[in-house]
Records
---
Amino acid sequence: MFLAILRSARTGDIWSEITRRDCRIVWHKLIWFPLHVPKYAMVAWFAILNRFATKDRLRRMGTDMDSVCALCADADKSKNHIFFECAFSVRVWSVVLGLCGLDRSTLSWDQELDWAVSCLKDKCLTVKLLKLAWNAFIYCIWEECYMGLFGGSIRSQCDIFYSLKEIFGFILYGRKFDRTDPTNAKLCIEWDLLD
């Protein structure tokens, strides 16, 4: 019976039935944009959907483990803490914002996501770098947390900055953008983006 119904259905009809049209994902262009790095985008996507097995989630599932953050050894390890409340993460994100010419304090996870979705819409170099930085920052912090969780060594903040600069250099190498624009020229200097 089911197979008979399935054979008579069109793919488009099935797709229409299983997708919700009233649920608009406002953050997709923050994650999936022309210069995205797939592994960074996937990790950022998981973070936005709150799919990481953070210590607070694992404890709620009955796993016996401490609640100390691997990065700062301070507070409960939740998504909010890991990315924008942990002293280690806040310092990294503040420097990233500074390298992009922004001088503002770090906000909570939800506020940072809202800020990124509402402000990172242009196609200028600053926005491209900030989108890359958002995804790379989430990936790097996630990677450091799990290195610490499984007994690995955690990189220094300087090593993370160097890694980000190197990655951005690879991604943006040979890309065309106006280097005579003062803002772009400053960004190229700050991020070591050479021709």
---
Amino acid sequence: MVPFQIKHRVLPISLVRREQRRSVAVDGSPRITRCRLEQDRCASRLSNAREVPPGSPKTVYVLLGKPTLPYTPGSDVAGVIEGVGEHVTAFKKGDRVFTIGTISGGYADYAVAAANKVFPLSDKLDFKQGAAVAIPYFTAYRALFQKGHAKAGESVLVHGASGGVGIATCQIARACGLKVLGTAGTEEGMNIVLRNGAHQVFNHREANYIDKIKEYTKMEGVDIIIEMLPNINLAADLQLLSCGGRVMVVGCRGPIEINPRDTMTKESSIIGVSLFLATEAGTFSF
């Protein structure tokens, strides 16, 4: 199995200090833990990871679930391979890579990752950017194309488009020829959305922003909605869809009551998206 040595990390100071490899208790207090470094036929030895993004939703969900301690959070990391397991052929020592998951946790001086969760990192990206690629961009691609079957010329509305998955969705959708609409809650967020591919952006804090979207689409609706908060937006989403439209649920923080008849009138669909149900031949192969 394989270590990442993390340098120049971008981490909450309460979680990780630079001098020692640590795991994190549920309350955020650090605990020193040891990491055995063993080779394994299904693992890559990874080291010298330069960046780890702050807590992802997955990490937050795990911590809220009170994991067995000691526990080291963090799944998305980027760095240089230190060594590989006996049967790993796709990578070699010195390769620049990023991961979509680790065995040992990413908030540490070293990390271990299975070879099928490791991907080459383009020379055009630095390690900070590489550590932010996996979950946001793979989720966006899966939601748009593998589950949403998006096509060039269709329209997509991205709720919460200034977040990680939102930005990734805007960039990918625009590059693939979709008409991209986004929402954000601040002027800064709206500008970020426009800079990352959206044709039009709306402030979801405004009471009449739904009406503005309807007006912009000339009451024809949008083909796809990427939804981060269906517990708030789903009922309104069904009103915004075009005939045959799809709401792609990529996050949720609670229940909501909807009228199923709204799906009947347009033969629309509500589709859940989970990156971690993807097969290697699916999301992990573009």
